[in-house]
Amino acid sequence: MKDDEPFLLDDPARLKALTHPMRRLMLRHLSMHGPATSTTLGELLGAKTGTTSYHLRQLEKYGFVEEIPERSVGRERWWRRAGATRDIRLPRPDQLAPEDRPVLAAFHQFAMDEDRELFERLPSVYERDPEWVKASRGLGRMTKAEFEEFFEAYMDLLRKHSPRAEDAPPGARPMYVRLFAFPADED
């Protein structure tokens, strides 16, 4: 799969792979800091190398990380986030079998808990470093087709400005970016 094609998480096992807390931390580290070994990740996360190796293999199995063969020597394997700028999309509930929909709901809950933690940190981050914090709230009026066009343009813009950690220019910082959009008349 090419990095610029949407990556649909319509496999319940793939969704489950992303709801494991250790795997989320590993992916976050690889996204922010670039390639690492299971040993490095274990030291950073307070886990044994066998544990991090297992989780890396699970992430590899589902296409979220990849080994860097040219950096790997002997037993030392280097890993990076696969498709760091990949557009990962969730399925609609009707795209999953009824028995698999709780996995999607669990994924949403896990992701929202992470996002809630980020939003709670926003005021203190803004206080320390206001030039690196931007926030916007708005209300627009769109048809379903216009909303789809807006979302696709947003995803294109995000990919354009999101190189891998190892390809980023000097002074580039990892940035959390979130977009929430839903009808205001649902309140």
Automatic annotation (TrEMBL):
SMART domains: HTH_ARSR (SM00418). GO terms for molecular function: DNA binding; DNA-binding transcription factor activity. Residues 13-94 form the HTH arsR-type domain. InterPro entries: ArsR-like_HTH, HTH_ArsR_DNA-bd_dom, WH-like_DNA-bd_sf, WH_DNA-bd_sf. It comes from the Bacteria. The keyword DNA-binding applies. The keyword DNA-binding applies. This is DNA-binding transcriptional ArsR family regulator. It comes from Streptosporangium album.
